[in-house]
């Protein structure tokens, strides 16, 4: 039974989270105002009017290994060490989605959820998602939702090829000889999400996703033409932005967005910066984004590469990635606070 939107928080929380109807199910009830559990504190709201738009053009990866390889490689390295984020060239029924909700999914490879960690958040995020873990092609085609399994698998495999090429370039640019062992250690665990951000009656009060960095190595993001993705500038960049500013990353037709994640910041000993980012909601059209996350296997130990420690000293200590994941998911989104778990002085 659908709750009245004027009822107490528990009724609405159960409907959206426990029963699996998600934000879309709530919006379908006919919202005219934002329910209290979704109203963000003032400091977390996204000021679209005063935000800058990223002026940087996409990097053309097709020019790698050609005459312009060195220039393109330098652009990639510079983007990863400053912004951590740069462009490179879910609408199904509540009943079907709820089948895959946490604790009820028939497959350990598929999970439907809403927000990030609803039980721990001061204010909920305006997002529903389906997450599909990759083990091998056979299990993906057997267990992923039939509505999207073939195209999702193709997108994931193509994205992983690109990630491996990018990691080779990034390692070379910090004086580390790339090899399959190092790259496999960073990308052994892969999953693809389908994120759905329904229309919101007042985007000024909500967020689609709160401030955070991804925990893995590199994330490949396909976003639609709606916009709403914002990244925090890590350090002053001439003609781009000042440290601490938020910039919108506008959709570019035919381009993908690459996020540097925490694992790459750790193994690069802080040379590359994970991208702190967030997502704004919209009132006119629902937004869809599809990220592919590449990260170490949970049992993998990650720490700064020895070549970099010898040169610069260790800025992070070695951690088992499962421990890092547990810490990451034990708290609501809070910028890049998760990185403190692996910092050398902790």
From TrEMBL:
This is Fe2OG dioxygenase domain-containing protein. Residues 182-296 form the Fe2OG dioxygenase domain. It comes from the Eukaryota. PROSITE patterns: FE2OG_OXY. The keyword Transcription does not apply. Belongs to the iron/ascorbate-dependent oxidoreductase family. Keywords: Iron, Metal-binding, Oxidoreductase. The keyword Translocase does not apply.
């Amino acid at each position: 039974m659908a709750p009245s939107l004027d009822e107490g928080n528990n009724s609405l929380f159960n409907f959206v989270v426990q029963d699996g109807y998600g934000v879309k199910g709530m919006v379908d009830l006919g919202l005219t105002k934002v329910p209290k559990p979704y109203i963000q504190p003032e400091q977390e709201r996204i000021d679209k009017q005063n935000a800058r738009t990223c002026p940087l053009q996409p990097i053309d990866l097709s020019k790698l290994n050609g005459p312009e390889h060195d220039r393109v490689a330098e652009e990639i390295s510079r983007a990863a060490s400053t912004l951590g984020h740069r462009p490179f060239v879910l609408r199904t029924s509540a009943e079907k989605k709820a089948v895959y909700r946490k604790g009820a999914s028939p497959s350990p490879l598929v999970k439907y959820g809403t927000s990030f960690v609803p039980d721990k958040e001061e204010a909920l995020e305006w997002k529903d998602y389906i997450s599909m873990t990759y083990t091998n092609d056979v299990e993906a085609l057997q267990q992923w939702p039939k509505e999207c399994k073939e195209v999702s698998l193709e997108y994931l495999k193509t994205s992983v090829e690109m990630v491996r090429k990018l990691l080779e370039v990034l390692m070379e640019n910090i004086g580390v000889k790339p090899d399959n062992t190092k790259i496999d250690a960073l990308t052994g665990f892969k999953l693809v999400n389908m994120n759905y951000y329904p229309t919101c009656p007042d985007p000024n009060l909500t967020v689609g996703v709160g401030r955070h960095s991804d925990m893995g190595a590199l994330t490949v993001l396909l976003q639609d033409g709606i916009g709403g993705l914002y990244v925090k500038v890590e350090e002053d960049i001439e003609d781009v932005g000042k440290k601490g500013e938020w910039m919108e990353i506008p959709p570019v037709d035919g381009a993908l967005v690459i996020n540097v994640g925490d694992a790459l910041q750790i193994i690069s000993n802080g040379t590359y910066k994970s991208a702190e980012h967030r997502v704004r909601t919209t009132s006119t059209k629902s937004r869809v984004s599809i990220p592919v996350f590449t990260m170490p296997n949970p049992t993998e130990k990650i720490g700064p590469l020895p070549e970099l420690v010898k040169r610069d000293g260790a800025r992070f200590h070695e951690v088992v990635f499962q421990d890092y994941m547990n810490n990451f998911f034990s708290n609501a989104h809070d910028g890049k606070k998760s990185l403190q778990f692996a910092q050398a002085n902790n």
